[in-house]
Design a protein that fits this description.
By secondary structure, the chain is an alpha+beta fold. It is built from six helices and eight strands, in the order αββββββββααααα. Helix 1 runs parallel beside helix 4, helix 2 runs antiparallel to helix 3 and helix 3 packs antiparallel against helix 4.
Length: about 210
């Protein structure tokens, strides 16, 4: 399985476990208004803390000026740009950049809270799981810290001992392969092994992806 296929599998798995029902409004607040629903997820862009992106696993009919809304939420997001993401000629995701608006379509200040978002910046960023007191400090200053943090999350959050042992073993293999030709293979095996627990390791994936290019 190549890098493109690996990332495609990661996106579809994350949407399965972390996705939400997104209402897509067309011709928002007009007499011609229509809407449809799709499964997606929203998060902050790593490159800009004020930029929110919705991701979908399919190429949808969403155009600039459409309005997105997480079902059950009172927040509205106007589409400012869309992009089909491909890696190795394989479609990965449909990314939609948005700006927050109010119910009458006027732009508001960007929100600082988007629910379950893993946007880690700085040394020892704090992460809390499901509001329980199981938070951990995440330090992405060096590779050693990242793998130590992953082990801590797996140890604290997975109850099934068999799953825990298997994932910890894959983390060991992945860490040992950093900087070698084996890293891609070990990364793919790690993603496959953690598919049922993707929400726990989602915060680490951007960093691990960067190691593919190192």
């Amino acid at each position: 399985m190549g890098i493109g296929s690996t990332h495609r599998k990661r996106i579809t798995t994350m949407l399965k476990h972390m996705g939400k029902t997104i209402i897509v409004h067309k011709d928002f607040n007009s007499e011609e208004a229509t809407s449809f629903e799709a499964r997606g997820m929203n998060e902050k862009d790593e490159q800009s803390s004020n930029q929110v992106i919705f991701q979908f696993s399919e190429q949808l009919d969403i155009s600039v000026d459409s309005v997105l809304q997480v079902k059950g939420s009172r927040d509205y997001w106007r589409v400012t740009d869309t992009e089909d993401i491909f890696i190795d000629n394989i479609f990965i995701s449909f990314d939609v950049r948005v700006e927050k608006i109010n119910s009458v379509g006027k732009q508001t200040r960007p929100t600082k809270s988007l629910g379950t978002i893993f946007n880690l910046q700085g040394t020892h960023a704090r992460v809390n799981f499901n509001s329980n007191d199981n938070s951990v400090n995440i330090s992405h200053q060096n590779t050693e810290n990242v793998f130590a943090d992953m082990r801590q999350v797996i140890q604290n959050q997975i109850q099934n001992e068999s799953d825990k042992a298997q994932i910890l073993s894959k983390i060991d293999e992945l860490e040992k392969s950093v900087g070698t030709k084996e890293f891609l293979t070990k990364y793919q095996e790690f993603i496959g092994t953690t598919a049922d627990h993707i929400s726990l390791i989602a915060m680490f994936i951007p960093y691990l992806t960067k190691l593919l290019d190192s």
